[in-house]
Amino acid sequence: MAQIKDPIKVYDARWEVSEFNDQQVARLFEATLGYARLIGVDTLVVTRDTRLGCARVMEIGIKLAVEAGFRLFVCFDPISTPLSYFVAMQTTINFPHTMGLTVTASHNPKQYVGIKYTVPTVEAIGYDCGPLGGLKKVKELYHQADFNLGKVAGGSLTILQNPIDDYINYTFDLAALESNELKGLSVVLDTFNGSAGPELYRALVRAGVSVTPHRLAPNGEFPTGSPNPTSQNKMNTALDLAIKNNTDLIIGIDGDGDRIVFGDQQGVFSAGFVMIPILKSILADSVNINPSKVLYDPKVNPMALLKWADLNAEPVLFRNGHSQIKAFMKEAGAIAGAEESGHFYHQLPLGDLVVSGENSLYTILLFLKAVQGNKGIISEIRSLQDLIFTSGEFNFEFADDKVRDQAMNAVIQIFKNDQARLTTHSENGDDLEGTVVYKGIEQQSGKITLSDDWYAAYVRTATNEKGVVRSYISSCNTRIGKALQEKIVLLLTGQFNGKQIE
């Protein structure tokens, strides 16, 4: 079967609805199910978020999976990706050879759809990440002309009840939190009309938090734009509500509920600083003499890493990439991880399982639990935030990938001309999938020293969108950071006719 293109990306499968017809979507599922057979899977958990393209994709996959002889457990209600992982964990307790398929396109605009994968035992896979190469093997089968899935008798379909209550109960137990224990805290909860709204609202109310909801109703049209709280200015209306209602905090969640931002009435916090109270909650009862490993991506600012180390955490650099970072978290024995894009990772036990992955409710409860114990943490984080400049990720789209690459190389040249230190690989040799830039930052034997004019940056191409360069800057002050950002923006818009996007 000759194919010019396929929907396989680095971390998942993702495509614009108009790009692929039903036959091509079916081919993706055939390849997926063929891969499932090769790794011994006999059971599938299929879930979805609220975006409009999910239902069609789900129906195609369910039909093929039953005809191929798999045991299926399906939740048709729109739920968050972390909740879908929990369902896969529950199912794995009884059926160890379970694959999870979550139909979602995360924070992408409404015209996108896709699939996130887990394999036994609830391990996320990506391209060249997972058994037999993970999605690399799926892609190979997708293009293999003589591959035919075939039909096998014995397939079954069980429709699951909405698992929100089990998820909330599990997460409260995991966080060692009682109902109404967070009474006295107030938040604006902005869920961007994504799938996580109902589950998070119910949980926070149960915890005793006073919640002002914003964009709570799941709506696959995403009427206020792409559901990405980490994009610049996307949390402005939540900030306005926080000021109006005098709430302690703002919390923003993306379309499928696995990307989180926190902030106060003055603005959004860096994820690196958010990890400080989270680590305080995790390490509060720790008796480990040696530092606990905590992963961070290239955008986490160096000032935050210094504070992690003060809590007896050992910061370990790893590349962006949800599947890859979770796999490395298990390999390295890390207790947690954070990406500046708003992804937080934990060790999640259930029965005999221990899964490295996301549980956004757990992240939120850990953060709020620390704040409840000491509301001064909010002002401490704000003081740290005000010491440095962070640009947020600013993204530019170009005419094609060729122009994109030229533009990215020109940005990198700016840093070379400034005699900054550039690297594309971590200390253990892993590809960082972009260029990490350090100026005035030295790291030796796990210790970091910062000069008075330090800055850090990360420049890469988008993995799931065509013709896009993503840039991020953190620096010792606004003057240095803003000057760098303005220089890059002027270059990308002027010389390469780039269009800034969310």
3D architecture notes:
With 502 residues, the chain is α/β, with parallel strands linked by helices. The protein has helices spanning 22-38, 54-67, 81-94, 135-143, 164-174, 197-206, 236-245, 271-283, 302-310, 322-332, 360-373, 376-387, 401-417, 478-494, and strands spanning 13-16, 43-48, 71-78, 98-103, 112-119, 123-124, 156-159, 186-190, 210-214, 249-253, 260-264, 267-268, 292-296, 313-317, 336-339, 343-350, 353-357, 389-390, 394-397, 421-425, 431-444, 447-461, 468-475, 499-501. Helices cover 35% and strands 27% of the residues. Strands 1, 2, 3, 4, 5, 6 and 7 form a 7-stranded mixed sheet that branches. Strands 18, 19, 20, 21, 22, 23 and 24 form a 7-stranded antiparallel sheet that branches. A hairpin with a 2-residue loop joins strand 21 (431-444) and strand 22. The model has no long low-confidence stretch (mean pLDDT 94).
SSE order and pairing:
Layout: E1 13-16, H1 22-38, E2 43-48, H2 54-67, E3 71-78, H3 81-94, E4 98-103, E5 112-119, E6 123-124, H4 135-143, E7 156-159, H5 164-174, E8 186-190, H6 197-206, E9 210-214, H7 236-245, E10 249-253, E11 260-264, E12 267-268, H8 271-283, E13 292-296, H9 302-310, E14 313-317, H10 322-332, E15 336-339, E16 343-350, E17 353-357, H11 360-373, H12 376-387, E18 389-390, E19 394-397, H13 401-417, E20 421-425, E21 431-444, E22 447-461, E23 468-475, H14 478-494, E24 499-501
Parallel strand pairs: 2-3, 2-4, 3-7, 8-9, 8-10, 13-14, 13-15
Antiparallel strand pairs: 1-5, 4-5, 5-6, 10-11, 11-12, 15-16, 16-17, 18-23, 19-23, 19-24, 20-21, 21-22, 22-23
Helix pairs in contact: 1-2, 1-4, 8-9, 8-11, 8-12
